[in-house]
Amino acid sequence: MKKFNTSKISGAEELLPEKQALFEQLKNKIDETYKKHGFLSVETPHLEHTEILLAKAGGDTEKQIYKVVKTAESADESDQALRFDHTVPLARYVVEYESKLTFPFKVSQIGVDFRGERAQKGRFREFYQCDVDVIGRNNLSIAYDADVIATLLDAFSTFNLDTPVLARISNRKILTGLLEAFNLENKSKDIYDIIDHSEKVPPEKTKSSFIEIGLSEEDTNMLIDFINTNGQRNFVIDKLTKLNLTNPTFLDGLTELDRVMALLEAQNLQNYITVDFKIVRGLDYYTGTVFEFILPEHKNIGSVCGGGRYENLTKHFSDQSFPGVGGSIGLTRLFYVLNENSLLKNQVDSLLEYAIIPITEAEYDYSNILANNLRDKGFKTTVVYSDKKLGDKITYAAKLAKNGIIIGDEEVKTNNLKVKNFLTGETTNLE
Asked: How many other β-carbons are positioned within 10 Å of the β-carbon of residue 12?
């Protein structure tokens, strides 16, 4: 009987070894892809000064962060809290080391973040984020927007999923300029919120929401037509060009979107990208390109990746301008939904290659030497230290490894070793 409640904390995730091995494989594939595309890896502390974390935050962020409880020894230290994303720590990192960094700074961060949200199915309080960002000093080429998207698409291509991913791409300048052209910018926040939630409610609700904030029937129909515009680059750009709008923000966004899509098409990614103006991203620091990835055959899962362009990453920490573009794979949530929907193939073998089974303690030294020799050759190997019966040792070993090697007095004397394949039952000589 349990003496304590040993269930995990709500909002945290823990896996059995075979699932953990698969999770680690996906994490490693993401890391390898990021490095392959030229992103340098950094790690920032899990703990940050609370004032740093809250510098750009708004809304309920202060209620969601985990603050550190001070002890008598740390009472004189400033308030500290666990980071809730990688973006704020990256902003601090860039300001702190900007004289030592090479810009544009291509950087990846893979690690655990913490949010004190209400735990829900598929949403966690402790979770892995896998971020890529490109930070410029004073300016940053729009080509990096395509670079980030292409990198993330490449990462997903390594997962061996049963269904391909689709990047839905937009540019916030287009909607901003559209609202300016129709004198609706004073209602922009409400309009962005309605569009951001439009896929979660019936179409009639979206229309009624526009009416409720005071939009005319004509403006409402115009916006609904706009957000329902999606598809390949030429079709979308041609349709919006025919609006004959002269608003500079609108035209700038259209040019940027056209350029990003063209750069991705040139990399033969046209089957994995689409323009979609329902993508506005809820975070208010995005200023240009925005994107979200979905699995088209499993739209119920929702977004599996997202990001965009921000004009000044460090505006709360420095007068220097550092524009950037970035994207993030929420690996913990992604792994959960892929696993729940049976979209992950068993891509990893968690079994060891060898389990060495000494019959008595007298064979421990020999077994250890043999194990180290096998490890030196790259084989995952364990030694079974147990005083149980040989049959019990073999049963245990078969749960851990593909092959077993029994070491007794005769094997030590002759070096004649037999390998039993636990999967097939076949016995062969050890080469």
From this structure: 13
